[in-house]
Amino acid sequence: MSTTTSTTTTPAWQDVTASASDRVEALLTELTLEEKIAQLFGVWVGASSEGGDVAPHQNDMDDVVDLDALLPNGLGQLTRPFGSAPVDPALGALSLLRSQRRIAASNRFGIPAVAHEECLAGFATWGATAYPVPLAWGASFNPGLIERMSHRIGSDMRSVGIHQGLAPVLDVVRDARWGRVEETIGEDPYLIGTIGTAYVRGLESAGIVATLKHFVGYSASKAGRNLAPVSVGPRELADVLLVPFEMVMREGKPRSVMHSYTDVDGVPSAADESLLTGVLRDTWGFDGTVVADYFGIAFLKLLHGVAGSWGEAAALALKAGVDVELPTVKTFGAPLAEAVRSGDLPEAVIDRALRRVLRQKVELGLLDRDWDATPEALRDADVDNTEGIRGIIDLDNPGNRAVAREIAEQSIVLVSNDGTLPLAAPRRIAVVGPTTDDPFAVLGCYSFPAHVGVQHPGIPLGIELPTLLDSIRIEFPEADIEHVPGTTIDGGETAGIPAAVDAATRADVVIVALGDRAGLFGRGTSGEGCDVESLRLPGAQQNLLDAVLATSTPAVVTLLAGRPYALGSAVTGASAIVQAFFAGEEGTAALAGILSGRVNPSGRLPVSIPASEGTQPSTYLAAPLARSNGVSNIDPTAVFAFGHGIGYTTFDWSAGEHGPGTVGVDGTATLGLRLRNTGDRAGTEIVQIYVHDPVASVVRPVQRLVGFQRVDLLPGESVELSIHVPADVTGFTGRNGERIVEPGEIVFGLGASSTDIRITHSVQLSGEARVVGFDRAFHPSFNEIARSAS
Fold it and tell me: Which residues does the UniProt record annotate as the domain Fibronectin type III-like (predicted)?
């Protein structure tokens, strides 16, 4: 008996008492080939600014989409209904509501679409909070705070009808010239995995499907060029690039993964069955959906040259393990149907992907009989009164801004300071540099104003973006402030530098504000497709910096940037250096607060600051021969290393009670630490644990982060910690390709950065080499034994 014709019996796929798998199978058997395929692609749409149906979004890669022709077969996803053009959030929600009703009414089974959006540094829509970028999350070393942020992002998205978010980025920085460094969490796999797990937990707890990207190797492209080929060995792949995905997959439980654009050793990720099925599903047990990076399946034909037709590209991706084509239908439509009908692709491969997609729709409630397209934010609104609902949804509320401010304050890194900071009520302040009066200087390229808003210059930004100059004026209301830009971010002009020098000469202190402008594909100095040849400051900024530092006025260098830059004369000539990585809408107020001392900085570098502009690619995860040595005249040593950062108080470190000097390869080492705040104000120290493996069966990094903990102490307060480190964290991929914990000496270092190790404890791991896998321990535990005041 058909379950589609009864008006009194609930169709099996809509029966909420049945198992998800039973519901999926019941629906799958009813679908035609075209209806199956329709669930495996998205259509790029834009919400109507008047609350009407979404309209297809046109892009250089798009074919014309006829929704009337597509919708009778159903639709898998809606691509960026909020994030394609500025639209009032309430009208956008109404537009999505009406579109979902249309989609459900158009197909035989009443199936709505999954709606997805970008959410890299906040919900990427008009009027939503612009949080700090992921590189700033890494600098905070505070996973709990990032989880709070992502829960708020997810709640905002879910409230207006969004189901899936395309974040977080788990790429490991291997070459800081790569334009998308700002989108990463840093250069260390453990830091990325820990912070990335927190982000996923927050997003998923709000009901949003988190999407890990870009799987895998994107950040290791040759010469730091976007989409360039990747040549890494299996050990670097397993021990560096895959580790964050592995950690987040196990501990964050994401429900989606996006493949990378790149090819690794000649195999494009979108067509790599060993990666998308072998590693991801067979080894790690992932049962969610794999979605295409935008146009990534078409790129198998257009860019990689491994497919001769759209149908071949579709078949390659599906066989490898890609389930959904995004952002719009290109290869998964008629070409895919033809590939099945011609016998080139078994229909069972379609069914495999479809089961994953439908199961996710079951989980989201989209196949429930009582499904309602009305999002939470419009439940009490009169949706027939289009103009009456304008402005009723606030996506930049005080709670959001408070979290954005907290992240900004905790992520800004005080890199150096000769005592000039905090500023003690200076009478005359010169503020020079190109990021002083630029509201976009705090935004990454995937923020809505920078990503989409710039294409609509007549539309207001939708959020308040005070410039650094604005915030300095508020922070120092009694000071006489003179502002001279000196040059632009990347124009190379030098005519304004003498005026900036004159202003600096007249001042008690000069703030030199440098950095980036986020953009896309060469339209910025940082962002997707904005790669650089060297890490010299963009444009004539170094010329400006050198000229100002040549004056006798104390100079505080601030950077609002998307990547680390070589700072040349500032390293020895600046009175202080403050690094902010695109710190979001509250970023300039946070930076001004650090300059005044209202905020005690606690950020740490998630990426090293190079001593020279031309030593890339380099990373702190360097083996002995990748460090300074006598066989090369090039010294790649960073001037400020991964994990570095100081504040306005000082801490005394001393060893506590360590555990035994010998533990088994399946055991746990115990480290003891006493920490005391020896300054006159409250502060935060970030205790970092590094592993050094003096002799191993394969070459290992000299130092590798395996744990960290933020420790807040009042003036004079002390704490004693007992830290338990499982031997599993010392593991690496051995010569036979298996991850092992190897017997022998291991030196654990407790330090304030990767190059500032304060306490070491040598442990002998005993026993035979032990194979560890996906279920291994990832983290040490920090236990507070005692805390006392001065």
Answer: 685-754
